[in-house]
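Task: sequence in, structure out. Protein: 7-cyano-7-deazaguanine synthase.
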Amino acid sequence: MSSNTKSAVVLLSGGLDSMVVAGLAREAGYAIHALTIDYNQRHRIELESAARIASHLRAAEHIVLPLDLRRFGGSALTADINVPKDGVGESAIPVTYVPARNTIFLSLCLGLAEARGARDLFIGVNALDYSGYPDCRPEFIRAFEDMANLATKAGVEGDRFTVHTPLQHMTKADIAREAHRLGLDAGMSWTCYDPTPDNKACGKCDSCRLRAKGFIDAGLPDPTVYG
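Result:
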């Protein structure tokens, strides 16, 4: 890696959104330091997807950090709560919301970025085509960036951090098209919240429904194998 190469920390879950964000960071010329959080989530297949994506994008490093959020619970992804299968909700925050997840994960990205000398963080949050999570909103990202520059040695010394959210105002169809444009195989990514016993996507959870609709709206084939 050239000493002139700029670096970024990318929060890489293994999902379609994080894959596209990582691809956009690489396209922009960043050396990628990929961070995946193994939070003992229900849908652990995405950890394998994250490893495939990091390898494909030639990440400078890929850290899989264990953090057992099942000890906290409070979510259908971290506790024995059924994942809803009755369609995408539009009002209430769903039970698949993990308490403060993006705040926790971005804080870990921030720590890694400061340690590596990177000042750019990338996360695949989206405010248009999502399931109602409060930590995906633009105002949350702005507040976190302000906090990052108040809470770090680099920030207070004027070496500011930027949180990049290139998918913030994209629909899921837009994101599917970006994956296609970047030449990324969407089949490397994993979306389902509640895989079947034979490791297929359930096709019924909010995440599966949004993904499937996105590919239909984009006019692109969905490589997901549904159960």
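Residues 6-218 form a domain with the Rossmann fold fold (CATH 3.40.50.620).
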